[in-house]
């Protein structure tokens, strides 16, 4: 029962308490770039979640085999392999989504969320716990993207789920009688606020939703999320070692002591 409870906690922490976007403030670049529509947000979120779960599993399996001094390059190779597989699948079966996401799909390789979970969790925990952690963080990332995309698409374009067939095509042609999203009736009276689907609207939406997430987390006794600069990055320790001229040898000594 204790194991089940801990696994449940590992999954749910990524939803609100340690949401990678609104609480840990990671993956901001793809969040702002791909949240102009809910369909794009779902595509990016699901792709990142698949890479997260698969890479966490493999890295956890190899955690005792990979030498400490080369673990970061090894993690990147594993992550890049799964990103390549996901990109090829998207290109083959959902080409419209691949075109919409553009360069941000292959850039999942350098997404701070993916590498951060590999370094902070998968490299130190069991396979099952790592898989659950990846799933929880992936769902949290997808939820954050969809929340931002919903606000931006509704206010900025006057639509919701526009281009839904880009995803539904996976289940055959003209699924749900060709449903391709909604055009909201208020657009007949008021023009959409285009600024919301531009960069300024993205930052504004991000700030407001982050404030809401902070408020919700604080009501549950969690600390306020803060922008910590480089110190907030999971790779900060490695950068500090290199800057001090200690390099991997010092890191290895610390690892041996642990």
Features:
258 residues, 2 domains, two-stranded antiparallel ribbon, disordered C terminus
Describe the overall structure:
The structure is a single chain. This protein has 258 residues and is mostly helical. It folds into two domains: 2-183 and 191-227, no CATH class; 229-258, no CATH class. The chain has eleven helices and two strands. The chain has helices spanning 2-12, 28-34, 38-61, 71-93, 95-101, 112-122, 127-157, 165-168, 199-219, 236-243, 247-257, and strands spanning 159-160, 182-183. Strands 1-2 form a two-stranded antiparallel ribbon. The model is unreliable at 1-5 and 247-258 (pLDDT under 50).
Helix amount: 55-70%
Distance between the termini: 29 Å
Output the strand order for the largest sheet: 1-2
Order of helices and strands: HHHHHHHEHEHHH
Blueprint (SSEs and pairs):
Layout: H1 2-12, H2 28-34, H3 38-61, H4 71-93, H5 95-101, H6 112-122, H7 127-157, E1 159-160, H8 165-168, E2 182-183, H9 199-219, H10 236-243, H11 247-257
Antiparallel strand pairs: 1-2
Helix pairs in contact: 1-7, 3-4, 3-6, 3-7, 4-5, 4-6, 6-7, 7-9, 10-11
